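Slide 14.
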Amino acid sequence: MKTKQLRVVAILDEDSNDRIVLQQAFEQCRQDIEVHSFEKASELVEYLSRSEANCVRNGSADLIIVALDLPWESTFDLIVTIKADHSLRHMPIIVLIGLVPEPLIKRLYDVGANTVIARPVLWDELVGVIKKTCDYWFGPLKM
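Slide 15: predicted structure.
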């Protein structure tokens, strides 16, 4: 019998309610996802580095979701840090944004963000975006 492989999603958002909502959206979309939430960029980087160094399968992230306006560190610096680390750079980074100017979006891609998504306001829209994101990065769920 083949064991189902869990996909690991790391969420970084300063707002605890937003982290919970994102986690619930992922759980509604896929049953093969384990979500880890972080409030500070330094916590996320430490978790990713520690997990990669220890070769912990359920530690490293298959996908990283980052809120744009983190009060503790710059989102740009975080992306650069992850992409500069040889053991972490393979992890896709999706940045959730509010209303921001086009040059800011271009800069996110320039520093290494894989995808920039406007943060949906309504629950159904959020679930739809998360489902499409999972389908794109993980492929369709096979039962």
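Speaker note: The CA atoms of residues 74 and 87 lie 21 Å apart.
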